[in-house]
């Protein structure tokens, strides 16, 4: 979660999950793997065929289409009726309980009326509802964390009046802006807040530039070393060639000297013979 919509990267997610549950690799039990989605209907249906043994978590966050569009931008593309129909098909195929994620925002989706609407919407499904109190950030200053009594009232309605298993997530790390959804950079007033994921590409680009500079320096050093090695090889070759020339000259001189000596001996023998 928090890394974008998994079903928008469907093939990579399926490959990763298959690697996780492969007995020859990570050997995780499929029941210990959960794929979370905001509700990309076509891929929800494919997931129930390709990975029927893994768990599904659906980020719902609202009991009506009109309200959901104000919280979840993709709700306009995949309306609530089609999403609920996909949920029904998924459960028919997999026979598995689905986790419903519901972020609670003060005075937005935490009223008793909305709890009843959610109960009616999900009462015929095998689901577990996870109520998540909103953690405030500067990115959405118009949203606020719900009051604890409102969360408890909401949970009470779902469980006692509709028989829906419901839990509330405990918030931790809010005092250091490290709670769920708060991984963002705090900026000066009137400056646009930047999400941590927006910073990563710049960091990566800087690291890539440094690696390129290091590689360039290394290539220059390698080129210099190769040039030195080439020069050394050339010098050694020239020395060998010069030695070969000197050796040849020495051989030629000795041969000439041998010829001269032979001639002198021959002349001396001839003179003695004449006498």
Would you identify the regions where 5 or more consecutive residues have pLDDT less than 50? 193-205, 270-275
How can the largest sheet be summarized?
A: 5 strands, parallel
In terms of quaternary structure, the protein is single chain
Overall body shape: elongated
First and last CA, distance: 122 Å
Range of helix content: 40-55%
One letter per element, helices H and strands E, the order comes to HEHEHHEHEHEEEH
Mean pLDDT: 79
The structure class reads alpha/beta
Radius of gyration, CA atoms, in whole angstroms? 41 Å
Give me the side-by-side strand order of the main sheet: 1-2-3-4-5
Number of strands: 7
Entry summary:
With 275 residues, the chain is an alpha/beta fold. Helix content is 54%, strand content 11%.
């Amino acid at each position: 979660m928090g890394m974008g919509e998994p079903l928008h990267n469907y093939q990579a997610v399926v490959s990763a999950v298959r690697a996780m549950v492969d007995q020859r690799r990570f050997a995780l039990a499929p029941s210990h793997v959960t794929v979370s989605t905001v509700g990309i209907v076509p891929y929800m249906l494919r997931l129930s065929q390709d990975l029927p043994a893994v768990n599904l978590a659906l980020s719902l966050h609202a009991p009506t289409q009109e309200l959901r569009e104000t919280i979840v931008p993709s709700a306009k593309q995949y309306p609530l009726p089609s999403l609920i129909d996909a949920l029904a098909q998924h459960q028919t195929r997999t026979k598995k309980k689905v986790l419903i994620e519901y972020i609670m925002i003060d005075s937005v989706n935490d009223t008793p009326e909305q709890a009843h609407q959610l109960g009616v919407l999900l009462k015929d499904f095998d689901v577990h509802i996870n109520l998540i109190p909103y953690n405030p950030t500067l990115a959405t200053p118009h949203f606020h964390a719900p009051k604890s009594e409102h969360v408890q009232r909401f949970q009470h309605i779902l469980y006692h009046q509709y028989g829906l298993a419901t839990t509330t997530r405990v918030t931790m790390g809010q005092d250091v802006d490290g709670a769920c959804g708060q991984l963002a950079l705090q900026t000066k007033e009137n400056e646009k807040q930047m999400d941590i994921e927006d910073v990563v590409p710049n960091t990566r680009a800087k690291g890539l530039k440094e690696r390129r500079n290091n590689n360039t320096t290394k290539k220059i050093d390698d080129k210099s070393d190769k040039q030195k090695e080439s020069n050394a090889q050339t010098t050694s070759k020239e020395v060998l060639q010069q030695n070969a020339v000197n050796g040849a000259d020495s051989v030629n001189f000795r041969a000439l000297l041998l010829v001269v000596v032979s001639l002198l001996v021959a002349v001396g023998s001839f003179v003695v013979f004449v006498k």
